[in-house]
Amino acid sequence: MQHENDLVGYELVDDMASAILREKQIKEWKRQWKLELIKKLNPYWNDLYPSII
């Protein structure tokens, strides 16, 4: 079951400047594009947080 605060996607970047640039890019996207990105990376919408701690 998915919860509101589950981590369902993330991207690794080389530095903070790259992370900020990527975040600004994605913020400009339509909601559907963001959902498609998540579905491509995590099709079952699993909570990824346990895999990064």
Brief description of this entry?
The protein has 53 residues and is an all-alpha fold. Helix content is 51%, strand content 0%.
Q: Can you lay out the helices and strands and say which pair or pack?
A:
Blueprint: H1 16-27, H2 31-41, H3 49-52
Q: What does the oligomeric state look like here?
A: single chain
Helix content: 40-55%
Q: Would you tell me the overall average pLDDT?
A: 95
- What low-confidence regions span 5 or more consecutive residues with pLDDT below 50? none
**Fraction in beta strands:** under 5%
Total beta strands: 0
- Inertia-based shape: globular
Which structural class should the secondary elements be placed in? mainly alpha
Largest sheet: none
Count of domains = 1
Question: What is the ordering of alpha helices and beta strands?
Answer: HHH
Radius of gyration from the alpha-carbon trace, in angstroms: 12 Å
Straight-line distance between termini: 20 Å
Number of helices: 3
